[in-house]
Amino acid sequence: MFFEHDPQDVTRILFQNFPTWMAVRFYLIGAAACVVFAYGVWTNIRKYRRGVRSGAWSPFWPRVWQMVATVLTHRTIKRRAEAAGRSHSWIFYGFAALFVGTSIITLEHDILEPLTGLTFWYGWFYLAFSAVLDLAGVALIAGLIYMMYRRKLLALPRLDYTRPDRSPGDPDYDRSGYRREDWAFLWTLIAIAFTGFLLEASRLVWLQGDAVVWDYRWFSPVGTTTAYLMKALGLGPDGAAQLRLGLWWFHGMLALLFIALVPYTKVKHIFTAMGSLMARDTEAKRRMPTANVDGERIGYSVLTDFTDKYLLNLDACTKCGRCHEACPANASGYPLSPRDLVLSLRELANDTLSHAAMPKGPITVSGDGVNMIRSETLWSCRTCAACVEICPVGIEHLPMIVQMRRALIEDGDFDPMLQLTLKSLQKSGNALGESKRKRPRWTKNLDFEIKDARTQPVDVLWYVGDYASFDPRSQKVTIAFAKILHAAGIDFGILYEDEQTAGNDVRRVGEEGLFQALAAANIELLNSCEFSSMVTTDPHTYNTIRNEYPEFGGNYLIEHASAMLERLIREGRIPTPVNLNYRVTYHDPCHLGRINDGAEPPRQVLRRLGVDLVELRRIRENSFCCGAGGGRIWLADPPAMKKPAELRAAEAAEIAGLDVLVVNCPKCLNMMEDGVKGSGNEGKFRVMELIELVQEAMGLIGDTTSDDGDNVLREAGAPA
Amino acid sequence: MKIMVAVKQVAFLDDEFEIRDDGRDVGEDFFEKDLNEFDHFSVEQAMLIKEAAGGDAEVVIVIVGDEDADDALRTALAKGADRGIRVWDDALAEADGIAVAKVLAKLVEREKPDMVFTGAQSADFGSAVTGMALAGFLGWPHAAVVSNLDYASGARTATLRRELEGGLEEIMTIRCPAVLSIQLGINQPRYASLRGIKQAKQKPVDELSLDDLGLSAAEVAPASRVRRMYAPERGKAELITGSAAEQAARLAEIIKELRGM
Ligand SMILES: Cc1cc2nc3c(=O)[nH]c(=O)nc-3n(C[C@H](O)[C@H](O)[C@H](O)COP(=O)(O)OP(=O)(O)OC[C@H]3O[C@@H](n4cnc5c(N)ncnc54)[C@H](O)[C@@H]3O)c2cc1C
Ligand code: SF4
Ligand code: SF4
Fold first, then answer.
1. Is some CB atom of chain A closer than 8 A to the CB atom of B238?
2. Which CATH architecture has domain B2-220?
3. In terms of domains, do A104 and A138 share one?
4. Share of chain B above pLDDT 70, in %
5. Do A215 and A317 belong together in one domain?
6. Residue A361 belongs to a domain with what CATH number?
7. Which of A141, B59, B197, B221 has a CA that sits 20 to 30 A from residue A54's CA?
8. What CATH number did the domain enclosing A151 receive?
9. Are residues A363 and A271 in the same domain?
10. What span, in angstroms and rounded, lies between the C-alpha atoms of B131 and A658?
């Protein structure tokens, strides 16, 4: 045995040399801190429970395990912020080890020993424990120092709390309180860690004559080094005893204060983030919450319409600003930041739901009042889901925005332009104000007949979509896709006049009643047709049919055109004899790359075409929205504002020698062509659909395609 | 206090269409039906008056039309009107504005509203007679193409502005009850969500026949009859440029040419 002493003696005597009254006082204060903590936890839980029950935490255990895995790996915190994630893990593991260590002592000293006489905190276990906790303290301090450096010296834009949705002078503009809280949090934790080491050192100096302490000092390397430093500065055992008592109280009080304040400060994110991660809905970015359209009200107009999960979400936000930075609306100067939306609602909830009594009247959420969400904020959203995708604590901003929009739609609080679109959708099932009869008119441009899937069985049912059917520029792509399918010998058909918009944007704009009516009509029609799979060139249509129709009884196998092309090329069913000599870049549509994991097939296709693909800065799930989503394509962007598509075009223009910006969505095509013009890059490179490149590589080009889309419409425009 | 608003279900023509075999109308496949654009504004005006009165006013929507017209009626109800009345009889199939106005006059006698709104005109036939013919049958004060209205629920008079030919406007004060035909742009109509339209099914709608109103088929015989509908032949156009004298000379030349002189 290594020990010269009885291992039982190799431990730390708790409250050594404390008069009884002092220990009693400590326990009383400790108990008070626990009561304050418990009260705070309870008021928070009461606040969340004032929302609508969601049942989002069941099934409980699988959700616990996936949350624990997320927290332990720091997967979500490390994403696109490696350094911050690493330092956070130091703080997390350091803090967790110190917390568990302290709990072990309490377990032995205050529970097991008094009850059973059992002890274990001595000998080897004690020494290992000391060493681990010393290391934990170092990790904690190192992590905290990096965070201080990050806040103070890196001055990252994402950590700037300036709000885009308020102006200076507004009562809820000032967020300096948050900044003070951040710093108080960092300083308190670092003070607790430092005083812990000083306390350890002063105990060693004080007990340097006690071999059972001093001989094992190097198991506390940091404490011991500090102790030597203290000795060198002339500290003797008596002085150290006094210093130790003072530090003991200071460290203990600070730690208890910290614990007591957890539920009242940003420290609560320790718990709220875990609760939020547990409740996370992996489908949140794909599928908007279904609402009962026959109910008395719809959407979220008052705070108590929010579910308990969303109210918890609000408290989980750590103000990391990742959503703020990723949001295309915020980046182009619109009055929306998903972070500030969450924080406003948090403040509103704290003001109204955390008292014993509920306020008398309804707690309106949208409006111009303090901490309310302005309607122009809600209408700025492109429903690109960049916020949901990046939030490290699993906050689901997008469904909340859509829910609030539903209430605005019901109240008529929206741009009059949108009303025309919605009326057109009600009347004729498309957003472009066109008649139903005009929908299949583009097919007149083909020298073959497309099968009518309403009357004949087909292998592949092609859901064309609004823009692809009516927009003159997109029609060229639609015609190209038809030719490719025809050349590949695919047995395909379309729904002609009876196709209506699938409803992705209708749902995201908040017109749930209309969405459900469209979905029901489309599903009824689809169910009456005979086909084995579906395809569409429009990622919005793809998303809704794939992820939202099953809830309404529409279960179909659907592919995006790019995935189908990739497959057909791979299987050799479409030859691409011409190698395209272009330098291209590829813009991921949100609804394909980020929302439906469809980033790879289009790149595979590009590789097969022999082009030189240079990637943009923000790609795949981190793609930057063209600005069309969530119904924004139906609304004009104010001329004074920058458009997300212009920012994106400027990003593409950074690529030297770029020939083609490749898009993969009819709406992206529309937005990016404008974006290229608006950003002054016209003539520098072209915007083309992936389908058009494939068509070119197949050698299908050169006949009727170039301007016919336009001609069809113009001829049709004249009265018969 | 009660406001009655007459609304019409109109046809929106596709820009490619065919005339029906009998040559008297467009084939049914070539239009979609919807609430008359003007009537969105008159319903909104009634709702604004109701809301300004703290809800203390009843808005009754009336429509002459078959079951199909229920959609338009419900759209109007979804905007917040209290109840609806639909009048139909096969004898009304070819009703023109005058015939419809006769039916509406009976409804006014029955409902005794304090104010009646119609749209300035219908988006399909555009004859702008219904509202004014109604006022004529009732012998009520009236104003057509009202573009601004100052009227409080239950007031004895209303002050309004209306559009005249040539960009002129007239400001007048009118005794109530009155019949006003409402012009586009008088307000910003609210949106009726599809959910609202569905829920408006629960609002009370009286379905009445001509009998119920004490009218005979002969009384609602249309004053006009469509004999033939056709797309006019395309003409020629020529832009005449040059000095006034040159233009006059060219014009004279064309006239001579056309008259074969
Ligand atoms: C200032 C002014 C400018 C004009 N400018 C032009 C011009 O530029 N070009 C031109 O061609 N003409 C012009 N006109 C003429 C005008 O357009 C015609 O007189 C007019 O088109 C006719 O409208 P209407 O009869 O369709 O309306 P109606 O169809 O008689 O009336 C429509 C309204 O009557 C009610 N109604 C109708 N049918 C029903 C039903 N079945 N059930 C219940 N309610 C019903 C509804 O309230 C509806 O809104 C102008 C007139 C004015 C006064
Ligand atoms: S969905 Fe996109 S536009 Fe909307 S708040 Fe999130 S990041 Fe911003
Ligand atoms: S909502 Fe999420 S991503 Fe946005 S600031 Fe808060 S924690 Fe960060």
1. no
2. 3-Layer(aba) Sandwich (3.40)
3. yes
4. 100
5. no
6. 1.10.1060
7. B197
8. 1.20.950
9. no
10. 64
Count: domains in chain A? 3
**pLDDT attached to residue A306:** 98
Same domain for A36 and A102? yes
Which residues in A lie closer than 8 A to residue B188 (C-beta atoms)?
Answer: 416
B65 Cβ below 6 A of ligand 1: yes
Tell me the pLDDT band of A2, cut-offs 50, 70 and 90.
Answer: low
**Is B195 close to A410, i.e. CB distance below 8 A?**
yes
Do A388 and A478 share a domain, yes or no? no
Residues A206-219 have pLDDT tens digits of: 999 998 999 999 99
DSSP of chain B? -EEEEE--EEEEEPSS--B-TTSSSB-GGGEEEEE-HHHHHHHHHHHHHHHHTTT-SEEEEEEE--GGGHHHHHHHHHTT--EEEEE--GGGTT--HHHHHHHHHHHHHHH--SEEEEESS-SSS----HHHHHHHHHT--EEEEEEEEE--TT-SEEEEEEE-GGG-EEEEEEESS-EEEEPTTSS-PPP--HHHHHHGGGS-EEEE-TGGGT--TGGG--S-------PPPP-------S-HHHHHHHHHHHHHHHHT-
Same domain? For A157 and A288 the reply is no
Question: Is the pLDDT reported for residue A269 higher than 80?
Answer: yes
Radius of gyration of chain A (CA): 31
Query: What does the pLDDT look like over A327-366, one tens digit per residue?
Result: 999 999 999 999 999 999 999 999 999 999 999 999 999 9
Q: Let me know if residue A181 belongs to a domain.
A: no
Put simply, whether the predicted model's pTM sits higher than 0.90 gets the answer: no
Determine the distance separating the centroid of ligand 3 and the alpha carbon of A277, expressed in angstroms.
12
The range of the structural domain enclosing residue A438 comes to 419-698
Instruction: Provide the ipTM.
Output: 0.81
Nearest to A297 by CA among A646, A550, A42, A52: A52
Q: Which residue, among A266, A260, A254, A246, has the nearest Cα to A346 in the 3D structure? A: A266
| Residue A505 lies inside a defined structural domain of this protein | yes
Name the β-bridge partners of B174.
Answer: B158
In a domain, A179, yes or no: no
Tell me whether B16 touches chain A (CB under 8 Å): yes
End-of-domain residue from the set A221, A244, A276: A276
Residue A89 to residue A181: CA distance in whole angstroms: 21
Contacting residues of A for B196, CB less than 8 Å apart: 410, 513
Domain segments of chain B as ranges: 2-220
Hey, what are B10's tokens? 């109109």
Of residues B14, B29, B193, nearest to A410 (C-beta): B193
Strands (E), A277-339: none
> Is the pLDDT confidence value at B15 over 90?
no
Q: Is the pLDDT of residue A131 over 60?
A: yes
Domain boundary among A355, A384, A414: A414
Query: What is chain A's mean pLDDT, rounded?
Result: 93
Q: Reduce the DSSP state of residue A85 to 3 states and report it.
A: helix
Helix (H) or strand (E) holding A640: none
Is residue A166 in a domain? no
Given CA atoms A265, A266, A267, A270 in this order, what sign does their dihedral have?
positive
The one-letter amino acid at A107: L
SS3 of residue A530 by DSSP: coil
Q: Which atom of ligand 2 is nearest to the CA of A323?
A: 7
**Within a 10 A sphere around the Cβ of A221, how many other Cβ atoms?**
14
Residues in chain B within 8 Å Cβ distance of A414: 191
Is A580 in the same domain as A437? yes
Q: Do both A397 and A423 map to the same domain? A: no
* Pair of tokens at residue A308: 């308990």
From the CA of B145, the nearest ligand is: 1
CA distance B122 to B128: 7
Nearest by CB to residue B195, choosing from A423, A512, A719, is A512
